Amino acid sequence: MTEFNTSNTKLDPKDRRRLKQLAVVPLAFALAAYVGQVLTSALLSSQPLLLMSFNATDPILLLAAHQTEAVPFLIVGTARLFAPDLFLHQLGWEFGPATKDYLKSEFGPRSGFIRTIAALERWFPRVGWLLLFAIPGYPMCLLAGIAKMRRLPFIVVNLAGTVSRLLLIFWVSSVFEGPLGASVRFIGRFSLPFTFAMVALVMLQSSRGRKKNSEG
Questions:
Q1: What is the pLDDT of residues 194-204, one digit of tens each?
Q2: 107: Cβ–Cβ under 8 A, 6 or more apart, which residues?
């Protein structure tokens, strides 16, 4: 695996525009996850696939898996999880370590995203493919681009990891069908208070993120 270049490259205005163009899709999906979090109780019982298209975190996927069949679950889940990854890979490929410097300036050095990248970076040159298979999320896709992992191997490993994750979640949902069914009914029964709780949680998460960024 290619070693990382640690040079602190500055971005000119043209490069910054290009970086923002590539970043807009992953950012839009990240914001959609917050929308899906708020709409969980409204969509879980009636439109689980639509809920997944907004928010594809593991708890939502687990609940949605209980509400749908395997094939549509895999198709929608794979599309939702993989959609931002090519853009993140391209970001890292085009801008290298400067991408991390730019993101650090935008989000602050104490943001969870930046700290996750820093934690994974030391291992990526040695076991990058395995990490990408195991956790094909935003930080790993960005690091894969920075490390110049070629597009085809990146797609194959990423998709293999994504589909494996979804299959595991669907299997777990079948094993714990009873408790998940009870959870879905509970959320549906207390839909309004649950929605208010999700709004409060999203506001808290946003507030904590801004606080950490300002401290950084």
A1: 888 888 887 77
A2: 113, 114, 213, 216
Taking the C-alpha atoms of residue 76 and residue 57, their distance in angstroms, rounded to an integer, is: 13
Q: What is the pTM of this model?
A: 0.81
Q: Where are the domains of the chain?
A: 13-215
* Contacts of residue 10, Cβ cutoff 8 Å, sequence gap at least 6: 98, 101
Euclidean distance between CA atoms 55 and 61, whole angstroms: 8
Q: What is the torsional sign of CA 103, 107, 110, 115?
A: negative
Q: Which residue, chain included where needed, has tokens 């070693």? A: 3
Q: Cβ neighbours of residue 152 under 8 Å, at least 6 residues apart? A: none
Q: Which residues contact 61 (CB under 8 A, 6 or more apart)?
A: 52, 77, 166, 169
Measure Cα distances from 188 to 13, 36, 80, 216 in Å.
Answer: 49, 15, 24, 40
Whose CA is closest to 81, among 117, 55, 114? 55
For 148-182, how does the pLDDT look when each residue is reduced to its tens digit (9 = 90+)?
A: 899 999 999 999 999 999 999 999 999 999 999 99
